[in-house]
């Protein structure tokens, strides 16, 4: 398998545009409601499949209807889901996202069985055999904060696998634990708030350099409308965002990760791979949900 995305799987229920929660039993009519496969592993897997990369996703869902839906929709997008385990009696993680007119996205979230994913749920040969393993949401997959899992990552990297990592939350209490993964990660892809909390630094450039010093070959900090900051041993590079109308920012970080990983698979240099991530994120921002704008996305790999 070319890429394995490992970690958080969520069903998103999105509605737009929502300016306020109705009072009492009132009803507001909306333009759009969608259900999508999301989360730092599932959303990135869908983006990778959309851009034409062979990808398998590994994680946990419940044995409920939401789990049925998530597996079905990921398969429809072309993701290998044989590494997703079903947890008996468990709730599949889900979020309700009322999308504001400006694309902002407050959320209501149930973590579900993502919290129970453990090394025992993983096929080690699948991990070791991948060209790239993307860790999605290690801040909330507490069962993987395990020496045995870190040893598996070390073994995979020794075999030539590239390891990338993204986070899910912006919760300060969860950030310190993620730092234990940094010596086992080649490329870290946090957003600005996560980078600041992980590093304890006050500015994004200092944060990126501090995190770079803890093991990764590159740190790519996403900055929303300001694009991203790429930190490597060669220095700091700003990659601007594309100027596109924003419908919904859900899944833009996952799309950036997917495009970046696709760039690595294609042999691009880090900054060039970041530009591909930027282009894919811009497409996703133009529609509702983490899989918006993926039709025709394979062309980006040739054009960007």
Automatic annotation (TrEMBL):
Q: Which organism is it from?
A: Streptosporangium album
Q: Name one GO biological process term.
A: phosphate-containing compound metabolic process
State the Pfam families in the record: PfkB
Is the Kinase keyword given for this protein? yes
Task: Tell me if Cytoplasm is a UniProt keyword of this record.
Answer: no
Protein's recorded name:
Sugar/nucleoside kinase (Ribokinase family)
Q: Which UniProt keywords apply?
A: Kinase, Transferase
Carbohydrate kinase PfkB domain: which residues? Answer: 15-290
A GO cellular component annotated for this chain's UniProt record is: cytosol
């Amino acid at each position: 398998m070319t890429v394995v995305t490992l970690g958080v799987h969520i069903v998103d229920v999105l509605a737009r545009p929502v300016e306020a929660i109705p009072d009492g039993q009132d009803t507001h009519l909306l333009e759009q409601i969608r259900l999508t496969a999301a989360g730092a592993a599932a959303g990135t897997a869908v983006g990778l499949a959309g851009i034409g990369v062979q990808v398998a996703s590994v994680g946990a869902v419940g044995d409920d209807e939401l789990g049925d839906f998530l597996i079905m929709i990921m398969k429809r997008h072309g993701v290998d889901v044989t590494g997703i385990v079903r947890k008996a009696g468990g709730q599949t993680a889900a979020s309700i996202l009322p999308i504001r007119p400006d694309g902002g996205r407050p959320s209501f979230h149930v973590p579900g069985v993502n919290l129970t994913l453990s090394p025992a749920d993983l096929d080690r040969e699948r991990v070791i055999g991948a060209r790239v393993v993307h860790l999605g949401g290690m801040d909330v997959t507490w069962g993987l904060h395990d020496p045995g899992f870190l040893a598996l990552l070390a073994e995979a990297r020794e075999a030539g696998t590239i390891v990338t990592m993204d986070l899910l939350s912006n919760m300060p209490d969860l950030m310190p634990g993620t730092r234990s993964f940094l010596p086992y990660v080649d490329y870290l892809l946090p957003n600005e708030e996560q980078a600041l909390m992980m590093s304890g630094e006050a500015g994004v450039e200092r944060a990126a350099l501090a995190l770079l010093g803890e093991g990764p070959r590159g740190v790519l900090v996403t900055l929303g409308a300001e694009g991203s900051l790429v930190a490597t041993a060669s220095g700091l590079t700003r990659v601007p965002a594309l100027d596109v109308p924003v419908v919904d920012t859900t899944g833009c970080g996952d799309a950036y990760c997917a495009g970046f990983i696709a760039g690595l698979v294609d042999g691009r240099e880090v900054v060039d791979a970041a530009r591909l991530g930027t282009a894919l994120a811009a497409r996703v921002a133009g529609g509702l949900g983490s899989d918006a704008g993926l039709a025709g996305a394979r062309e980006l790999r040739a054009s960007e």
